[in-house]
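Morning, I've got a small favour to ask if you have a moment. I'm working through a protein record and want to make sense of it properly. The fold is given in discrete form, as structure tokens running alongside the sequence. Can you walk me through what the tokens say about the fold? Thanks so much in advance, here it is:
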Amino acid sequence: MIFFDLLHYSPLAFITLSIALGLVVGSFLNVVIYRLPKMMEREWAEQCAALNRKEGEEEPTPLPPFNLVIPRSACPSCNHLIRAWENIPVLSYLALRGKCAHCGAPISARYPIVEAVTGILSGFVAWHFGFGLAAGAALLLVWALVALAVIDFDTQLLPDDITLPLLWLGLLFNSANTFTDLKSALIGAVAGYLSLWSVYWGFKLIMKKEGMGYGDFKLLAAIGAWFGWIMLPLVILLSSALGAVVGIFLIVLAKRGRNVPMPFGPYLVGGALVALFWGQTIVTAYLGL
């Protein structure tokens, strides 16, 4: 109880702890970002092999275990197992100067960036909400959104293993009116899914091709479950505007082809973060006008 009293009455202690926890979680999110898509690909391959296997054929030799825990993290260049002191968020990267301790191969700067961003956002959550249920819920949301944004950026996948639990968690937390009332959350989940589902089919009927994936529907449904239906227009407007600006930049300055697919998930995540921290203020100000 003394520990919780300290966090409750000392904002600095709560913010500091949240930043430290965010850095550690960010290190784990790097594992999730790298391994979860590969786990999905393995599962799909196994399912296809099972469907194509003829009756009487022997089952293929099982692949070595591969999940979020096994095998241990290792350097992709020399398979050097990462030791504990080499896995301290951000600090290990700086101490190693961005190189493997064994072979000297460069380590992607994205690892410390994900850790730092997760830590900063976690500290901001603690400062914005203060110690309580809302802060704990917001931390879980932020961590999931960071993982989804980077996975979608890399692979154009939004795993159900994250989006669906996120949807149910939103409804669960809002059963206690954490961010909105449960009725608004339920309507938000349905409206979030159907809004992008309608856009998807309208685009497909007109352009004869797909404009987004089903993962985007599920992510917006989860966002609606967390913030309620009234926040959906704000999230959609912000994510669309951000996506348009980045898309124009990539086409004009980076010479990216117009037909090259661009993930929409990171922009939905950006809209969701704005809704989390400033959504109520923005909506109230808009309705006041």
Summary: The chain has a mean pLDDT of 89. The radius of gyration is 21 Å. The longest helix spans residues 11-52. The chain is about 70% helix and 0% strand.
